[in-house]
């Protein structure tokens, strides 16, 4: 019961925060709204028993990635001009891509089996360690070894990309 | 066994208090604080000089490179946590997997270093 109430609090908070990101005119205010969205999302992860992901969500997204966003905002100095709303080809392509992503997510969601309802009352022994750092590490470096190593390649591409984009003249 | 969500109660209390403070303090300051407005007080003060220009200036692009590289290595550090907790259980196999992971990123670090992206002055 308490979880139901919390879910709705987090869900409405997430959507309200995400709405604020695009509704607010000041880019810095929209970035702060995104921080709020991340925190509510972290709450949702807790309800999904993904404790580690919830902490990482706050540490990495609300902490590190938001710093990058704020840097980009200050780099572009958008505050002086306000958002520029124009219908350009890239904007239309972005809208189409977003619509396609939404459609595919809805498609996946509809195909999901009617979930197995894992509750604390019935599966306490399984859920007591589920989603913790120890449990995550136990499967990440054995069962999910390949995706884990692939992440290092992804990060390598990110490093090279950052340098190539920003340090083109060097 | 204790329900795991009850362990989050202190965090919820902290967030609740932070929210109350964030609303209450500016509100009370506005209600209780004495205010006298003069032309002198309304002027911006900047080290004794008359302020010039906007406070919102563009940042140098070097900050962006540093921030982006920080995030990449921050994410790498995140992957070290679950490994460190299971260090003994995973043994030499786990050690080797983390070695491969870290070696890939060391390649990136060497690239960044050689490219001079870490030199602030260039």
Could you explain the architecture of this structure?
The complex is a heterodimer of chains A (170) and B (122). With 170 residues, chain A is an all-alpha fold. Chain A has a single domain (2-79, 129-169), classed as Up-down Bundle (Four Helix Bundle (Hemerythrin (Met), subunit A)), CATH 1.20.120.1200. Chain A is built from 7 helices and no strands. In chain A, helix 2 runs antiparallel to helix 3 (51-76). Chain A starts with a helix and ends with a helix. Chain B is mostly helical. Chain B has a domain at 62-115: NADH:ubiquinone/plastoquinone oxidoreductase, chain 3 (Methane Monooxygenase Hydroxylase, Chain G, domain 1), CATH 1.20.58. In chain B, 67% of the residues lie in helices and 0% in strands. The termini of chain B are far apart. At the A-B interface, helix 3, helix 6 and helix 7 of A face helix 3 and helix 4 of B.
Primary descriptors:
heterodimer, A: Four Helix Bundle (Hemerythrin (Met), subunit A), B: 122 residues, mainly alpha, Methane Monooxygenase Hydroxylase, Chain G, domain 1
Shape category of chain B: flat
Share of helix of chain A, binned: over 70%
Major sheet of chain B: size, sense and barrel closure? Answer: none
Oligomer: heterodimer
What does the overall shape of chain A look like? globular
Rounded to an integer, what's the Rg of chain B over CA atoms?
26 Å
Supply the number of helical segments of chain A.
7
Range of strand content of chain A: under 5%
Number of strands of chain A: 0
> What integer value in Å does the Rg of chain A equal?
20 Å
Secondary structure category of chain A: mainly alpha
Separation of the first and last Cα atoms of chain A: 59 Å
Provide the number of structural domains of chain A. 1
CATH hierarchy, class of chain A: Mainly Alpha
Classify the beta-strand content of chain B into a percent band: under 5%
Low-confidence runs of at least 5 consecutive residues of chain A = none
Number of helices, counting only DSSP H or I runs of 4 residues or more of chain B: 4
């Amino acid at each position: 019961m308490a979880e139901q109430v919390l879910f709705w609090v987090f869900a409405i908070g997430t959507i309200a925060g995400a709405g604020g990101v695009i509704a607010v005119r000041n880019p810095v205010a929209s970035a702060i709204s995104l921080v709020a969205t991340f925190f509510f999302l972290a709450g949702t992860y807790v309800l999904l028993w993904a404790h580690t992901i919830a902490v990482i969500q706050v540490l990495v997204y609300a902490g590190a990635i938001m710093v990058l966003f704020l840097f980009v905002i200050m780099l572009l100095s958008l505050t002086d001009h306000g958002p520029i709303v124009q219908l350009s080809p890239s904007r239309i392509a972005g809208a189409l891509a977003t619509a396609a992503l939404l459609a595919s997510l809805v498609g996946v969601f509809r195909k999901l089996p009617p979930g197995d309802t894992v509750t604390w009352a019935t599966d306490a022994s399984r859920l007591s360690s589920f989603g913790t750092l120890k449990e995550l590490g136990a499967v990440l470096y054995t069962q999910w070894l390949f995706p884990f190593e692939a992440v290092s390649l992804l990060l390598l591409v990110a490093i090279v990309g950052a340098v190539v984009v920003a340090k083109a003249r060097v | 066994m204790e329900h795991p969500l009850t362990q989050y109660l202190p965090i919820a209390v902290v967030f609740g208090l932070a929210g109350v403070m964030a609303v209450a303090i500016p509100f009370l300051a506005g209600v209780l604080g004495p205010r006298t407005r003069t032309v002198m007080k309304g002027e911006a003060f900047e080290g004794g000089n008359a302020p010039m220009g906007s406070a919102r200036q563009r940042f140098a692009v070097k900050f962006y490179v540093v921030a982006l590289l920080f995030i990449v290595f921050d994410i790498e550090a995140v992957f070290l946590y679950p490994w460190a907790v299971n260090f003994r259980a995973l043994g030499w196999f786990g050690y080797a997997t983390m070695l491969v992971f870290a070696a890939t990123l060391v390649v990136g670090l060497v690239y960044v270093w050689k490219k001079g992206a870490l030199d602030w002055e260039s």
